[in-house]
């Protein structure tokens, strides 16, 4: 595999697919027939958007010197590709821009097919992609919520909107679920990088508020995300099959216990970081599968 592929972070590209699946599941759960062209455009958009943000992150972290001081884990923001092959830095930047162009073109095609209202989500997504590493990392709150907005609001809600043709409560539920989960994905992955990030002027949540407070917020957000599923079922916004997602509790319990018990040890506990990734994938996957298999709920359409 060519070294430059490392800046794409291929192993991380499962996340946009999970987000799109969540939007797809809730759109079909609303008894609609999705267009294959729309589905392909949404998948291309999701993958290239994530490739773009990964490549920009690699480039800017290399230029700032962060990549040379980070104690790398399998879940670190940078792959180390440019540290080992610095001559590829400009190539990484070019690929980041190219992926962003493909994302934008795919988005504009969807806007052309479904209406200018989608443009709002697209502009927010593009802004998050380009500004996250360079600018948003200087604000603890913007840095905290930006990934969730990108993957939850823009990608999951956008997918459900395009594939079902309208916004309904089920789409908002899935988008909120993914927003909370992705916020926590980035939040916990920042624990090992606190010292290196602080040295280059970043001010994300664990740096500003500390690991203990960050661990409590992490536990709160995961708990809300988990409880959102039965609440949505009780309200009739998701079918009863969505309760399949509750089997993810077998990962949530040990995950929260491990993070809350010793927040300072998270940086050295790759198993705990991996458990977080597994939970963030499993909860929406099981919820979405349940929605697809049991389409018997009454949905309330937003006018």
From TrEMBL:
It is found in: Membrane. Signal peptide: none annotated. One of its GO terms (molecular function) is prenyltransferase activity. The keyword Cell membrane applies. Pfam families: UbiA. Keywords: Cell membrane, Membrane, Menaquinone biosynthesis, Transferase, Transmembrane, Transmembrane helix. Its main location: membrane. GO terms for cellular component: membrane. The chain crosses the membrane at residues 12-31, 37-56, 94-112, 118-135, 142-163, 169-188, 209-231, 237-260, 272-294. It is a multi-pass membrane protein. Pathway: Quinol/quinone metabolism; menaquinone biosynthesis. One of its GO terms (biological process) is vitamin K biosynthetic process. This is 1,4-dihydroxy-2-naphthoate prenyltransferase. It comes from Idiomarina seosinensis.
């Amino acid at each position: 595999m060519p070294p430059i592929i490392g800046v794409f972070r291929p192993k991380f590209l499962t996340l946009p697919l999970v987000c799109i699946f969540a939007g797809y599941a809730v759109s079909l759960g609303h008894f609609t027939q999705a267009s294959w062209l729309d589905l392909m455009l949404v998948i291309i958009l999701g993958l290239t958007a994530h490739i773009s943000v990964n490549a920009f992150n690699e480039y800017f972290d290399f230029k700032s010197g962060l990549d040379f001081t980070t104690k790398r884990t399998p879940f670190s923001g940078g792959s180390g590709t440019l540290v080992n092959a610095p001559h590829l830095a400009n190539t990484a930047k070019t690929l980041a821009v190219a992926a962003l162009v493909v994302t934008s073109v795919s988005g504009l095609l969807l806007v052309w097919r479904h209406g200018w209202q989608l443009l709002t989500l697209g502009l927010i997504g593009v802004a998050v992609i380009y500004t996250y590493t360079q600018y948003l990392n200087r604000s603890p709150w913007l840095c905290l919520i930006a990934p969730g907005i990108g993957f939850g609001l823009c990608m999951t809600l956008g997918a459900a909107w395009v594939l079902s043709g309208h916004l309904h409560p089920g789409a908002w539920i899935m988008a909120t679920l993914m927003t909370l989960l992705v916020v926590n994905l980035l939040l916990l992955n920042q624990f090992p990088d606190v010292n290196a990030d602080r040295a280059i002027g970043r001010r994300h949540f664990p740096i500003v508020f500390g690991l203990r407070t960050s661990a409590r917020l992490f536990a709160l957000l995961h708990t809300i995300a988990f409880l959102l599923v039965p609440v949505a079922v009780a309200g009739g916004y998701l079918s009863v099959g969505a309760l399949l997602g509750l089997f993810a509790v077998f990962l949530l319990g040990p995950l929260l216990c491990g993070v809350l018990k010793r927040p300072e040890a998270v940086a050295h506990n790759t198993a705990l970081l991996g458990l977080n990734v597994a939970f963030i994938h499993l909860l929406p996957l099981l919820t979405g599968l349940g929605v697809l298999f049991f389409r018997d709920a009454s949905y309330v359409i937003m006018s």
